[in-house]
Amino acid sequence: MLKKFNYVDREGMHIKKVYCKVCGAILVDTIVVEEKQEKRGDKEFIVQTTALRPTTKYDELCIKFKDGSRHITPICKECKKQENLDLIGIYKADIKEALKEGFSLPFRKI
Ligand SMILES: [Zn+2]
Fold it and tell me: Where are the chain's structural domains?
């Protein structure tokens, strides 16, 4: 069973976090790369610039299909070592996320 079938957190169109589908660990996170104080009129604002960055747990898994094609997907370093990963479930989660992004992945046999 996958802990995080819906493994991407979005705010509107922007990706905020990406989780390991298998265990739920954070793989990609939004971090503040710059913080500035800005004055607009007599009010001061803190303006943050953020960026998506992979965490130390980030790794990638290559799923090989029967037709010889491959699919690369994010996974954490620990789960990558596991045998008997639910590759079909992982790929289904990717198909679902791809649809949210507006493109479709083909159904392929593992
Ligand atoms: Zn994991």
Answer: 8-101
Residue 72 and residue 57 in contact, taking contact as beta carbons nearer than 8 Å:
no
List the structure tokens of 19: 């989780």
What is the full per-residue pLDDT of the chain (110 aa) written as tens digits?
899 999 999 998 889 999 999 999 999 999 999 999 999 899 999 999 999 999 999 999 999 999 999 999 999 999 999 999 999 999 999 999 999 989 999 888 88
CA of 78 to the centre of ligand 1 (A): 6
Q: What does the DSSP 8-state code read for residue 106?
A: P
pTM: 0.86
In angstroms, what CA-CA distances link 54 with 17, 31, 82? 9, 10, 21
Task: Report phi then psi at 55, rounded to 5.
Answer: -85, 175
Q: What is the DSSP letter of 84?
A: S
Distance 19 CA to ligand 1 centre (A): 8
Give residue 13 CA to ligand 1 midpoint distance, Å.
25
